[in-house]
Amino acid sequence: MNNKLLSIPDFSGLPSPVYLRHDEFGADTHSASHSHAWGQLNFVAHGVMELDIAGQRFISPPHYAVWIPPTTEHSCYNRQAIVYRSVYLALEHCASLPSEPCTLVISDILKAILNDFAERDVKIPEREADIRLAQVVVDQLRVAQVQTRYLPYAQSPGLHSVLQALQADPGDNRPLVEWAREVHVSERTLARLCLRELGMSFGDWRQRMRFLAAIEALEGRRSVQEIAFDMGYSSASAFISMFQRLVAGCTPEQYRRQAKKA
Predict the structure, then answer these.
(1) What secondary structure letter does DSSP report for 34?
(2) What's the CA angle centered on 208, arms 207 and 211, to 5 degrees?
(3) Which end of the chain is flanked by fewer CB atoms within 10 Å, N or C?
(4) Dihedral of the alpha carbons of 217, 218, 223, 224, in degrees to the nearest 10
């Protein structure tokens, strides 16, 4: 892999029960596979992070985070520059959190606290107010909505080839029945495979994939309308509506401006 290796904090033990990490990573960077005795939440304020966790692939877009339980082998890759937030949690805080890697929906409260800690460069909560905020972080993680993975992948060769083709061309609008003919199965069979292997419908998976592709495209200079057409939308307004649903009312142009400020 011809990209820059990211450094990993070298702790024999956590400096505090809740330790905060914030950084900005450039494009085409990765971390070596590693594990540690504490739990870790990975959150990307801007951009998209790809993670390999215990042999499963996870993708972390804004408003979603990836939870990694203690002693779980993991690595990451960043195709484009990201604004990174992370929370390391001691074992006593991990008992009430998922025992398997998963995606967590990040609340506005949690996002605001993590960004506040980053802006003030707080890594170890020491002031009484910061200790209380750190406890809110833990409480918010305990009640966060759990998803298995934000963009799951298929095991069966036929469905896997369909998903790969869609990622190569997000604007491909062919319906499920045409994809089914391409991999020589019935539409009903392919629909069942989606629900069984992805945990969602073909349409839901395609929308998530397009959202992730749009996040990366917004880092460039193409107009929102051009990106909308590239993603297979017939109008910019339809694309903007999808984006607002998935990023809590934020339009693509607002997201782009925020990313430039970060």
Answers:
(1) B
(2) 90
(3) N
(4) 100
**Closest residue by Cα to residue 66 from 57, 77, 76, 58:** 58
- Identify the CATH assignment for 4-147 out of 3.40.50.12780, 3.30.457.10, 2.60.120.280, 3.75.10.10: 2.60.120.280
Structure tokens of 59? 């993708």
Q: Are 111 and 53 in contact (CB under 8 A)?
A: no
- Residues in contact with 114: Cβ distance below 8 Å, sequence separation at least 6, in sequence order: 20, 22, 43, 45, 85, 87, 137
pTM assigned to the model:
0.82
Give the residues across from 89 on adjacent strands: 18, 39
Token pair, residue 178, equals 């045409």
CA distance linking residue 69 with residue 71, whole number of Å: 7
Query: Which candidate, 103, 114, 99, 134, places its Cα nearest to that of 15?
Result: 134
Kindly report the CA angle at 112 between 41 and 73, in degrees rounded to 5? Answer: 5
Structure tokens at 127: 């002031």
Helix (H) / strand (E) containing 243 = helix 236-246
> In the 8-state DSSP scheme, what is residue 107?
P
Determine the CATH number of domain 157-261: 1.10.10.60
Residue ranges per structural domain of the chain: 4-147, 157-261
Q: At what angle do helices 202-217 and 157-168 cross, to 10 degrees?
A: 30
